[in-house]
Every structure is written in structure tokens, then in C-alpha cells.
Specification:
single chain; 8-stranded mixed sheet; 7-stranded parallel sheet; 18% strand; globular; Hexapep
Length: 320
């Protein structure tokens, strides 16, 4: 960048800074302090052309999560911080085909490609009826999450974009399923009350039956079926052992614990700026003056239902 370019850049910088300063001054005079807001401005829900996420009103989507395209989330489910749930739009396939065609032209030359297309009369037919259908209704380009399911932090869920069979497979996750942190689910089906461990990877066509478990860090190869009540782990994943009845019962309890926790996070994230600033002031005062301000709401206690141990079931909780 030359001297003139640096001068233009500096002038532009000064103008922008001056405009922002004037905007902040005007906001202060109007009593509006939203420019000081420290909350996330990330957009969790985003359309892809005519397809957009459908999230039940009782579900929780963290502010830093990303739901893109045809993604459906059922009631009492939770999508935690840093998760990405993404469909595959048919336009991607169009771009891939265009790119391959352009590469073919560069490789073979325009005359060769013209002669090939001139002698080819068979039309391209895509057999959509041959696509594998999941156990619940879903389009082939969609991600479907049932009710009471939790997708924990930094997990990635999307459909199978390409594989050896040339199929586009949806990702369907049932009810009361726990998907651990940083798991990757691609074009697979997980039935109700299954458990996917932290860092596990499920590839195209994987089918996890009810009350089955994929151990943490496991890599489940394509088209693998994990039967009811079994634990699979390793790389590649293989059968390890049978689950006990208590372990299978814990899966539904784990999902319930996360549903309760999601309600607390949803309530906190729904607060407006003035509410959060007021709580910050009370916290500061309570820290200086002891418990005097605790009755005003400055110190918030965790609800009793969120303090359950992971190995305690609701119907077996000790009575007072």
C-alpha cells in the first residue's frame, strides 16, 4: 500500500470512529445503552434458500450453536454451545457437477467434450425412490432431532454429502438420546434412548438401535448396525459387551438431567441487557456486604431438581 493508500485508509478509519462515537453519544442521550451489550450476536438459525430450521418452542438452542437449512428439533431437546447442525442442499451437488465439468473441459479439451456429449443420448436419471428411508419421516437432505434429546457442546451433525454408494442420507436422532461433547454424526440413524459417547464418530449409514451405546472416541464405520443393549467402542468400533439394565435406565435419566439443565440456561439466555446488568450490580454489592443482598435476588441458588446426582433416578430419589 502506497502513501496515498495509507492516507485514504487513515481518513476512512477516522470517519468510521467519529461516526461510531457520535452514535454512542446519541444512544446515551436517549438512555439506550445497547451498544455496551456483551451478549452473543451470533445468529443460531440460518436458512439455506427456501429451507430453514424448525425448532420447537420448548427446545433450547445455545446462542453460539448453528442450525443451518432443513434442521428440525423436537420439544425439550437441547442443542448446546458450539454445535453445528447442517443439512445438504441440492445446490451443492449442482456446484460439484459444474466444477467437475469445468475440470473435464480443461483436461480433455473443448472438442473432445463436445464429441462425447454429441454421441451421448441417455439422459441423467436420479432415482430418488432408492434413497434409504429412516425410521421416522424425514427428507434425504434433513437433520431431525426428536424430543428430550441433547446434542452436547461442539458436536457436528449433518447429512452424508457423498459416499461410495452415491446416496444422500439424512441424519435422524430419536427421543431421549444423549450425544456427548465433540461427537460427529454424519448420515446416520440413532434410535430412542441411545447413548453416543464424547468424541465418537458415526459415518454414513450407521444405525444405532434403542438402548445401544457408542463408547467415547469410537469410530463407527459405514453401514454398521449396533444392536439393542450393546456397547461398541474402538477404532474401528466393535462389540465390547452387553449393557446392564441399570445402565440402560441411566440413558433416559441422563437425557432428563440435560433437559432440566437446558431450562436454566434458556432462562438465563432469555434475559435482557438491563436484567443482566442489574444482577451484576447485586452480585458486586453482595460480595462487599456479605449476605445482606441475597434476599434481593443478587445470589441465585441452583434449583433442587438440577442438583440430582447422575446415578439417582427421579422415582428412586430418597424422600425427605
Amino acid at each position: 500500500m502506497g502513501t496515498i493508500g495509507r492516507a485514504f485508509y487513515a481518513v476512512g478509519f477516522w470517519i468510521r470512529e467519529t461516526g461510531q462515537a457520535i452514535d454512542r453519544l446519541g444512544s446515551r442521550l436517549q438512555g439506550n445503552y445497547l451498544f455496551q451489550e456483551q451478549l452473543s450476536r451470533h445468529r443460531p438459525l440460518m436458512n439455506v434458500f427456501d429451507k430453514g430450521p424448525a425448532v420447537h418452542r420448548d427446545a433450547f438452542v445455545a446462542p453460539s450453536a448453528s442450525l443451518v437449512g432443513d434442521v428440525r428439533v423436537g420439544p425439550a431437546s437441547s442443542i448446546w454451545y458450539g454445535c453445528v447442525l447442517r443439512e445438504r442442499n441440492n445446490v451443492e451437488l449442482f456446484y460439484v457437477i459444474c466444477g467437475m465439468s469445468f475440470g473435464l473441459v480443461l483436461l480433455l479439451g473443448n472438442e473432445t467434450v463436445t464429441s462425447l456429449t454429441k454421441h451421448s443420448t441417455a439422459p441423467l436419471v436420479i432415482n430418488r425412490n432408492a434413497q434409504r428411508r429412516p425410521h421416522r419421516h424425514s427428507d434425504v437432505n434433513s437433520v431431525v432431532i426428536g424430543s428430550g434429546t441433547n446434542i452436547q457442546d461442539n458436536s457436528l451433525v449433518h447429512v452424508a454429502k457423498s459416499n461410495l454408494n452415491g446416496k444422500v442420507l439424512p441424519t435422524v436422532i430419536g427421543d431421549n438420546v444423549t450425544v456427548g461433547h465433540s461427537a460427529v454424526l454424519q448420515g446416520c440413524t440413532v434410535e430412542d434412548e441411545a447413548f453416543i459417547g464424547m468424541g465418537a464418530t458415526l459415518l454414513d449409514g450407521v444405525y444405532v438401535e434403542k438402548h445401544a451405546m457408542v463408547a467415547a472416541g469410537a469410530l463407527v464405520r459405514q453401514n454398521t448396525r449396533i444392536p439393542y443393549g450393546e456397547v461398541w467402542g474402538g477404532n474401528p468400533a466393535r462389540f465390547l459387551r452387553k449393557l446392564t439394565e441399570d445402565e440402560m435406565t441411566f440413558f433416559s435419566q441422563s437425557a432428563l438431567n440435560y433437559s432440566n439443565l437446558a431450562q436454566a440456561h434458556d432462562a438465563e439466555n432469555a434475559k435482557k441487557l438491563d436484567e443482566t446488568e442489574f444482577v451484576k450490580v447485586l452480585h458486586k454489592k453482595s460480595a462487599r456486604h456479605g449476605e445482606e443482598y441475597a434476599v434481593l435476588g443478587g445470589v441465585q441458588e441452583t434449583p433442587a431438581e438440577l442438583n440430582l446426582s447422575d446415578n439417582v433416578l427421579l422415582d428412586k430419589a430418597p424422600k425427605a
